[in-house]
Structure formats: C-alpha cells, structure tokens
Design the sequence.
C-alpha cells in the first residue's frame, strides 16, 4: 500500500499548475451516454475516480480513449444499460449514469449505493426527480432498476436539498425529455455550471444556469462537442491552505478565484495574503489566527475544504469553531489530527479547535479523500516525521499531491 512520508516543511515557495476539476469531469464523462457522437475533453486529470468512470462507461459499451490528458468518449456503441460490478460502492459518482441512461435507453440498472465514510449519502432526491419525469424505479437485491417505457417527460421538480448530484442527474436526463423540466432549489456549484456549458455545446437548451431555478427544454438529440473543464477549485483550495499553513509564498497557475470567494475570505480573516493575478492565485502565509467556519452549499464555504481548513486552524492562534452542515460524518480526520497533538473537541456538527504551538509527526491514516489531504497539510507543519497511509483515498481526487508540494519545496515523497 502506497503512503506519503514527510517531515516538517520549510515555507513553500514557487509556482505550480492546478489540475482540472474532478467533480466537473465525472458528470461530463457520463454525458457521452446521451449521444451517438463523441465528446472530446481536454485537461482530464489522471485520477482513479476518472479511471473508474471510464471503466464503467466502457462496460456499458461506450468507447473511452485517452491520450495524455485528452479524453475522447463515444456513446455510439452503447450496448448496455446495466452497470455491472458494484460501481456505486466503489465510487458514488457512478450514480450519475442513471439520468443519461434513462434519457438514451429508457432504462437503467445500477447497484443501490451504500453509505460511505462521510455519511449515508442517500439518493432519494435523484430518484424523486427521475420518477417525476416518468421513470419507475424498482429496488431488488441491492439493485435499482429504473424504466421509462414512454420516455422521460418534462416535470416540475423541487429539490428538498440543493443536492449537487441530484441536480446533475436530473439536468442531464431533462435535456432529452419530452417537454420542459423546471428544477427548483437546484444546486449552484460551479461544476454544475460547467456541466451545463458542455450540455449546451451538445445542443441542450438550459436557462437559469448558475441560479437556483433551472429550466431545461428537452430536445430530440444531442451531438458531440469539445470542452475543457474548469480548474479544480478544491485542489486549488487545498494547495492554498498548504501554502498559508507553512508561511509560504506560492503562485497557483491556472487557478480561478471566482469559484473560491468564501475560501479566500476566510483565509484572509486568518491572516493569509491572497491576490488574484492573471496567471492564477498568489498566496502568502503569515501569523495565522483562528476563525469560525461553517460549510454551506455554494457560494458558501465548501464542505470539501473543511478538513484541510481544520488542519490549518490546529496551528492558528486562538480557538476556531468549524460547523459541518452538509455531511453528517465528516470529521473523520479528527482522531488522526489528535494523534499529532491537535486539540479538537467534537460536539455534533461542531468541531472546536484550540490552536496549539506545535503538532508532532505521527503515523496517520487517510479515511477519505479530503481527510487525507488534511493529514498531509498537518504533516507539513508538524515537528518530525509524518507518514500518511491509505493514500489511495487521496489519489482519487489529487493527481499528485506529494509531487505538487515537493515542487514547492516540501520534504514529502510517495513510497510504496
Ligand atoms: C458532490 O457529492 C461532490 N462529489 C462531493 O465531493 C461534495 O462534497 C458534495 O457534492 C457537496 O458539495 C462529486 O461531485 C462527484 P450532494 P454529492 O448530493 O453529489 C444529501 C469530494 O471530496 N443528499 O450535494 O454526493 C447528502 O446526504 C466529494 O470530491 C440527500 O439527502 O453531494 C448530503 O448530506 C465528496 N439526498 C448532502 O445532500 C440525495 O438524493 C449533499 O450531498 C442526495 C444528497
């Protein structure tokens, strides 16, 4: 099992190019199921989640070819509607093939997603929307089988919670439905805006992009398209936090600050100096002070950066309260950070962090993608050696976190 070995880092310095967004690319890949033509995506990050989605799509008969970071996905050869194996268990985002399969084949079969480390993560809102559009969903031996014999029809759908995945699944399905679909209380994350832009390039008719009410007018067919996904705002935020935590001066090339206002605001409150430049975002660290953070749906502070932010606050002066409003169990990094000397008290959805003068290196385990990234950040600021195990979690979402940090001067390496 691969792991990261590291020591306390000097202030990070230099520049590194950020990757493109995992959470934009995954639904974009699923769009190939809705056309007989091909989609060309540029800048596709080399991630295990992307490999998993490519394998799932190939299982369904799509052809997925990759040349460096260019990926071509062709849905012409689609010959299946049953996603075999246990894709959803392996990767939650697999559920994003349901809407496209229903739109194209009028049926879809997928394992029912189990919970995962950060919460039960139900898909009731996905199923509510697809059912309102005419799909009947049967659950049997851990599988969901959705069918829409007469094809999907436009519907008015209210999302009880602005779920990112449910918005994406329903929006994709609605592009080929008969009639108009209105999604109220839709999620507004930048990745959804990016997905809508690809769908529009494919011939979809969507209005209200980036707003809470999306109106999708169904069309007969979608055609192929070329697209370059947005920069990964969560990888960007992770590297920004690492730069600030080490008191460094780092330029993140290709980073887009427009999707990170909440993160930039909170980091400035902590004492970091952040400037948006033409080439990207420049981050300089300083004496950091504690701040309170609440994770909210976009444009609030993203839940995916709660754990890395907590790791930075462990060394900030004073007390911080982090409130996790999105997932019910997203403090998995806490016991690991405590092993490094952090002073954190969890009370339900709140984590009270008392800044300490020193963290000490330890052998810690990544429990999920972003908790793992938090442990790497903590290791950069801890005295002595830190080993982060189970980094397969981290490699689901970061192309080469250790490589990016080493390029900025961090004494970190990936070892088998
Ligand atoms: C997406 O997950 C992201 N994943 C997550 O990133 C991210 O944390 C999350 O959005 C929130 O921003 C991808 O885009 C692939 P949700 P998703 O549906 O779509 C509840 C990462 O680290 N809910 O917005 O699964 C759910 O239980 C990953 O890159 C329902 O109740 O998130 C959760 O509490 C982790 N019913 C909340 O909504 C539903 O039908 C947010 O979930 C769907 C969701």
Sequence:
């Amino acid at each position: 099992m691969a792991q990261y070995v590291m020591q306390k880092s000097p202030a990070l310095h230099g520049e590194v190019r950020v990757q493109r967004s995992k959470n934009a690319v995954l639904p974009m890949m699923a769009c190939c199921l809705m056309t007989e033509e091909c989609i060309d995506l540029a800048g596709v990050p080399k991630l295990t989640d992307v490999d998993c989605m490519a394998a799932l799509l190939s299982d369904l008969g799509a052809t997925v070819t990759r040349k460096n970071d260019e990926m071509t996905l062709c849905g012409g050869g689609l010959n299946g509607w049953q996603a075999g194996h246990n894709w959803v268990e392996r990767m939650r985002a697999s559920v994003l093939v349901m809407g496209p399969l229903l739109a194209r084949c009028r049926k879809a079969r997928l394992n029912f997603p189990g919970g995962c480390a950060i919460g039960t993560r139900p898909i009731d809102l996905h199923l509510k929307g697809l059912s309102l559009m005419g799909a009947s969903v049967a659950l049997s031996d851990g599988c969901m089988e959705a069918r829409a014999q007469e094809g999907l029809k436009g519907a008015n759908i209210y999302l009880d919670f602005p779920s990112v995945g449910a918005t994406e699944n329903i929006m994709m399905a609605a592009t080929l439905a008969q009639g108009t679909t209105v999604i109220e209380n839709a999620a507004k994350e930048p990745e959804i805006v990016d997905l809508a832009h690809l769908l529009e390039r494919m011939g979809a008719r969507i209005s209200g992009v980036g707003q809470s009410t999306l109106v999708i007018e169904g069309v007969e067919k979608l055609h192929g398209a070329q697209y370059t996904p947005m920069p990964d705002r969560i990888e960007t935020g992770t590297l920004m936090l690492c730069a600030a935590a080490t008191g460094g001066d780092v330029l993140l090339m290709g980073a887009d600050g427009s999707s990170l206002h909440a993160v930039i605001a909170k980091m400035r409150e902590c004492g970091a100096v952040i400037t948006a430049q033409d080439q990207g975002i420049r981050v300089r660290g300083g004496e950091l002070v504690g701040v309170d953070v609440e994770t909210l749906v976009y444009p609030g502070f993203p839940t995916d950066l709660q754990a890395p932010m907590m790791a930075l606050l462990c060394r900030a002066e004073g007390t911080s309260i982090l409130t996790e409003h999105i997932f019910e169990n997203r403090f998995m990094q806490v016991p690991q950070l405590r092993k490094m000397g952090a002073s954190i008290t969890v009370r339900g959805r709140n984590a009270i962090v008392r800044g300490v003068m020193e963290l000490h290196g330890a052998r810690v385990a990544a429990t999920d993608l972003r908790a793992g990234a938090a442990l790497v950040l903590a290791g950069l600021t801890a005295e002595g050696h830190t080993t982060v195990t189970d980094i397969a979690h981290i490699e689901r979402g970061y192309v080469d976190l250790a490589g990016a940090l080493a390029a900025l001067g961090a004494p970190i390496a990936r070892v088998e």
